[in-house]
Amino acid sequence: MIFPARAWRTCFALSVLAAASGTLAQQKPVLRHFVTGTEERYQVTLNVKAESHSVSTETVATQTYVTPAVNAAEVTIRWRAVRRIHSVLDDGTAKIEETVTTVGRPCEDSQAKARQDSSLRTSLNEFCAHWPAEQTIGYSENPRGLLLESAPPSFVHLGESVPPLLTLWLRRAVRPSVIEPQLDFAVGANAQHSFRPSGESLKDAHGSETTEWLDAPGETLAAMLHVLQQLSWTSPAPAQIPSATAEPIPPNLSVVFFADSLTTLSLLDGSVLRASRTASRATSRAVDPVPGLPAALDFSSKLMLSITIERLP
Predict the structure, then answer these.
(1) Alpha helices in 34-155 (DSSP H)
(2) Burial level of 201, CB count in 10 A (0-12/13-18/19+)?
(3) Per-residue CA distances from 233 to 79, 85, 132, 163, 192 (Å)
(4) In 3-state terms, what secondary structure has residue 248?
(5) Which residues of the chain form beta strands (DSSP E)?
(6) Adjacent-strand bridge partners of 101
(7) Is the backbone of residue 117 left (phi > 0), alpha (psi -120 to 50) or beta?
(8) What confidence tens digit (pLDDT) does each residue in 64-86 have?
């Protein structure tokens, strides 16, 4: 995205004026307004869940019996994020220091260990092992929400195969901010476009993105930004999504990335009031038909991330 050459002061004043006059359809972008020296405090929860789907078969005489097998494991991390606005440049870009402090035990069990698959749990434990008790991250954020990090966070280690879409999504989604769309604000305004990424690993990929502004019921001077993203492609190499089996997975895998983000924004300064964000990467492969079965068996794995962000007083 390219930051438009229009002053944030004008857009901010128009936003307040339109809201005060009783209409939210000011047809202007919602830009972030930073104030030097202020702090923003948030409670953040991240849930990571891994699943693998397979089947076991048993043939008796001429009859084949198929039993679905679903293995799963998940972990949850909670932390508090404090964003300090150190300075604001002439173009409205803020220099931010964010301190992340883990609350309680990192990766506490979301389900009883007896119900979790041990192989999947081991994979998730590797992710948890990189999560710090406290970390301070420095970055800049412009009025459209675009970030420039001084260094990537140390806790993002999903062990994902190329392209690492979930990893890139997670780095952005845990930040208590949002990328403002190239869509002038009005409740009900929406835009959709399709795209085909470039690059060898995604040469056959196709995807879409849908953006929509929604009303925020019960909120004063606020609106919700809803963004849906989807991308599917065929992977030429084995995926590294956690699997319950140690057997090598053959190539030609069907991969689908899906993300759904709902963020409530203040129309006064564009800050995040709350957010619910989810993303998943599903990998599946078909095997040769089994005699006696009407269709080929399907084996799949899925890694899902869920994030909730709530602003604190």
Answers:
(1) 118-129
(2) middle
(3) 34, 40, 34, 11, 20
(4) coil
(5) 39-60, 63-88, 94-102, 108-109, 134-141, 147-149, 190-195, 206-215, 222-235, 253-266, 272-286, 298-311
(6) 80, 134
(7) beta
(8) 677 777 888 888 999 999 999 99
Alpha helices (H) along the chain = 8-20, 118-129, 165-173
**How many alpha carbons lie under 13 Å from residue 265 in its C-beta half-sphere?**
30
- Residue 260's closest CA among 282, 280, 278, 274? 278
pLDDT greater at residue 15 or residue 39: 39
* CA 130, 135, 140, 145 torsion-angle sign: positive
Q: 115: number of CA atoms within 13 Å, CB side?
A: 6
DSSP state of 279: E
φ/ψ of residue 75, rounded to 5: -135, 160
pLDDT at residue number 191 = 94
Tokens of 135: 């970390």
